[in-house]
Write a structure and sequence with these properties.
The chain contains 3 helices and no strands. The protein has 70 residues and is mainly α.
């Protein structure tokens, strides 16, 4: 494992995002790096499609949402 140097503003953004997503700073940075790499290597897929495929390949399945009309 190595050290990655990022500017202070980006580090601040990672710190803020990790609180929202309930991840450590390192886990948030790793998530963004992984998603960024997947987006760059799969430019025809949307973010949603990439995440859906990652969840499916990890064996995660969620039932479809049922939206009731008010």
């Amino acid at each position: 494992m190595g050290i990655v140097n990022i500017d202070d503003d980006l580090h601040d953004q990672v710190r803020r995002a990790c609180k929202v997503s309930c991840r450590s700073i390192n886990a948030q940075a790793a998530y963004w790096i992984k998603v960024g790499m997947l987006c760059e290597t799969n430019p025809t897929l949307s973010f949603t499609e990439i995440i859906k495929e990652q969840l499916r390949s990890a064996g995660v399945s969620a039932p479809p949402l049922v939206v009731s009309e008010a």
